[in-house]
TrEMBL record:
Pfam families named in the record: FMN_red
Keywords: Oxidoreductase
Claim: Coiled coil is one of the keywords in the record: no
Known EC number: 1.-.-.-
Coiled-coil annotated residue ranges, if any: none
Domain NADPH-dependent FMN reductase-like intervals: 2-145
This protein's name: NADPH-dependent FMN reductase
Molecular function in Gene Ontology: oxidoreductase activity
InterPro entries membership: Flavoprotein-like_sf, FMN_Rdtase-like_dom, NAD(P)H-dep_reductase
């Protein structure tokens, strides 16, 4: 069973995007599609990094543990809110901390917003950043408009059937690229 890390990118008080991360953790477990673990950036309390991990003289145990989780994951789901048309600094900070760990890593992006567009403005900048470091951003996306109405605080969607259908398409695309990467590595 593949390992999927779910990055909950927001560290703001009252964040609603974390509810979507909880949903994916539950969805993957209930459907027995992957071993999933949430990497909650709010729990790390990382400083702003002045350098990549490999160049930091005395990395903390938290930095090393984070890098190990990213390396061990077969694929990643990033759940990010849209803040003023962009993604949070907490996410950019951890993306820039690592480099080789992201290379050819299949990544699915779930975006959320309080408004009607589901974080669609954040996609271009986040995709570009991930492509620049060599990540495999899968073509399927999971936008969530009016997130505070779509999920409750424990990750339960208000419309389970429609949400599970969209999640199925999104997760299946990520699993396809995880399998394709594994197959390519086995045959090379």
């Amino acid at each position: 069973m593949p390992k999927i890390a779910i990055i909950s990118a927001s560290i703001r008080k009252g964040r609603k995007s974390h509810n979507v991360a909880l949903y994916f953790e539950n969805y993957l477990a209930q459907k027995q599609l992957a071993d999933a673990e949430i990497i909650d950036l709010d729990k790390y309390n990382f400083p702003l990094f002045e350098e990549r991990l490999r160049l930091i003289e005395n990395p903390t145990e938290e930095m090393l543990a984070f890098a190990k989780k990213i390396t061990a994951a077969d694929g990643i789901i990033i759940v990010t809110p849209e803040y003023n048309g962009g993604y949070p600094a907490s996410l950019k900070n951890i993306i820039d901390l690592l480099y080789a760990e992201w290379k050819r890593k299949p990544i699915g992006i779930a975006t959320v917003s309080a408004g009607p567009f589901g974080g669609s403005q954040v996609l271009t900048s986040l995709q570009f950043t991930l492509w620049k470091i060599g990540a495999l951003v899968v073509p399927a996306m999971f936008p969530v408009p009016t997130v505070e109405k779509a999920f409750d605080d424990d990750g339960t969607p208000t419309d389970r059937e429609a949400t599970d259908k969209r999640a199925g398409n999104f997760v299946n695309e990520l699993l396809f690229w995880i399998k394709a990467k594994s197959s390519a590595e086995t045959n090379s």
